Structure formats: structure tokens, C-alpha cells
């Protein structure tokens, strides 16, 4: 009977674990026996983190030590064992004093390794820069050499073309005049030589000008009759008509100057001049 009652009482017992005021509290409620609370380990208050880096490292070290003790104490309290002894604050601070030093040394090692990597990368970049500079100088040297060779070839070509003998251009001009004072000019030249002269402007063409033929003896002027004669109207002066140049001369004119000299008519004797002037 008692065993049955005890089993029934155990079956009606409830246990709840909660955190209250940063401390763990276990509340047990039993049938016909009331409730019971047991206070377990308490967590330290939240520290005020410092902005200084070294001080922050010490605070983190102390917080880790408190967290480790709280985990061990909670495990023992859950099993119903005695809570482990907590390490004194002075001992914890003494252990954490070396934490900033170790952190600084570790950071120095990391910075040293990073510096070595950067130095190695800088050496690689320097070698790449020297290689690129050498390649650029070689390319520029080849380009300048090509320009110099091209200039030399052009100079040789122009010198050869300038020293090459050119056929002289020949042009002939004939000028004549009749008794009425009309001038006739005839010119002829070689089209091939004129074309060669045009293709090589550096060499001036040779111009051959034929002199005008000598004028023949002047024809005598007939005497004017003494009888009155009706005066003839004065003839209008007409411009001398020059025949057009040949087609070859129009296609490729040669640089020549035609010289013509009109034939001079001898003046009548003085007596005849006076007779002609009388009415």
C-alpha cells in the first residue's frame, strides 16, 4: 500500500528549470508535498566593453573564463553534484594579462607574413614591368628602324629619278606676214617630248625658236592720179586672224615663246606722198 502511494506521489511530481535574475532556478512540485525551489549557479553580469583594443582583449578573456565555470557548474547542479570551486578574480586577471601580448604577437606574425607576401608580389610586378619595358623598347626600335629604311629608300628613289636624263622638248614656231600686214604664226612640237617634260617638272625643256623669214622687197605704191577721185572710205582695222594651233599642240602645249616680226612696208617717196595728200 505504501509502495503504491509512493509511486503515485512520484508520478505526480513535476520539475521545471528556469533562469531568474541571471541565476538558474529549479522548481519541483509534488502531490501532497508542496513545491520546492533550488537556486543553481548564477551568470556574471554583462560587462561594459571598452573601446581600447588591449582592454577589450582582457575583458573577453575574463568573460570566457566565467563562461567555462558556469558550464561546469550547471552540469554538476543538474546531476545533483556539488558545484565546482570558482577561480579567484585575481588569478583570472593574472592569467589574462598575457592575452593581449599573445594577441599582439600573433598579429605581428600575421602582418609579417602579409608583408612577405606583398614583397614577393612587388618583386613579381617589378619583373613584369621590366619585361614590358624591354618589349616596348624593342618594338619602338623596330618601328624607328622601319621608318629610317623607308626614308632611305624614298631618298634613293627620288635621287635616281632626278639624275635620270630626260629627252629635250623641241618646239618650232614660224612667223610670216603678207603685204597687207596680216601675221601668220605656225608652231609645232613633239608631243612625246612635251609629255616627258611635263612628267618631270624638275628638268626644264629645251625650246628651239626658228627666226622669222626675212621680209621681201616692198612693192611700189601706185601713184595717185592727179584727177579728182572720190575718196575711198577708210578701211576698218581688222584684228589679225591667227590660225588655230594644231591638235597636238592643244593637247600638250610646250613651254615655248613664238617670236614673229611683221614685214615693214617701205614708205613712198616724198613726192608721191605729197601728191597723194593733195585733193
Automatic annotation (TrEMBL):
Coiled coil regions, renumbered to chain: 108-135
UniProt entry keywords in alphabetical sequence: Coiled coil
Region called Disordered, residue ranges: 168-256
Segments of skewed composition (Low complexity): 199-224, 247-256
Domain of life, source organism: Bacteria
Keyword Coiled coil listed: yes
Protein name as it appears in the record: Uncharacterized protein
Biological source species: Anaeromyxobacter diazotrophicus
Taxonomy of the source species: Bacteria, Pseudomonadati, Myxococcota, Myxococcia, Myxococcales
Amino acid at each position: 500500500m505504501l509502495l503504491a502511494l509512493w509511486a503515485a506521489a512520484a508520478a505526480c511530481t513535476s520539475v521545471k528549470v528556469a533562469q531568474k535574475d541571471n541565476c538558474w532556478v529549479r522548481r519541483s512540485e509534488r502531490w501532497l508535498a508542496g513545491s520546492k525551489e533550488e537556486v543553481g549557479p548564477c551568470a556574471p553580469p554583462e560587462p561594459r566593453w571598452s573601446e581600447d583594443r588591449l582592454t577589450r582583449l582582457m575583458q573577453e578573456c575574463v568573460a570566457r573564463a566565467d563562461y567555462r565555470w558556469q558550464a561546469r557548474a550547471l552540469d554538476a547542479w543538474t546531476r545533483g553534484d556539488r558545484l565546482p570551486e570558482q577561480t579567484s578574480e585575481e588569478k583570472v586577471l593574472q592569467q589574462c594579462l598575457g592575452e593581449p601580448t599573445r594577441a599582439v604577437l600573433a598579429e605581428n606574425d600575421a602582418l609579417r607574413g602579409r608583408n612577405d607576401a606583398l614583397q614577393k608580389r612587388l618583386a613579381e610586378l617589378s619583373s613584369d614591368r621590366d619585361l614590358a619595358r624591354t618589349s616596348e623598347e624593342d618594338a619602338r626600335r623596330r618601328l624607328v628602324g622601319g621608318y629610317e629604311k623607308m626614308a632611305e629608300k624614298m631618298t634613293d628613289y627620288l635621287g635616281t629619278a632626278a639624275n635620270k636624263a630626260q629627252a629635250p622638248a623641241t618646239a618650232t614656231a614660224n612667223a610670216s606676214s603678207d603685204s597687207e600686214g596680216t601675221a601668220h604664226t605656225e608652231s609645232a612640237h613633239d608631243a612625246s617630248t612635251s609629255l616627258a617634260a611635263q612628267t618631270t617638272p624638275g628638268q626644264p625643256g629645251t625650246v628651239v625658236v626658228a627666226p622669222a623669214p626675212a621680209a621681201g622687197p616692198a612693192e611700189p605704191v601706185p601713184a595717185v592720179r592727179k584727177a579728182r577721185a572720190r575718196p575711198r572710205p577708210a578701211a576698218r582695222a581688222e584684228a589679225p586672224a591667227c590660225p588655230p594651233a594644231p591638235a597636238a599642240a592643244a593637247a600638250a602645249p610646250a613651254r615655248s615663246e613664238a617670236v614673229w616680226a611683221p614685214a615693214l612696208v617701205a614708205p613712198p617717196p616724198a613726192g608721191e606722198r605729197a601728191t597723194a595728200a593733195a585733193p
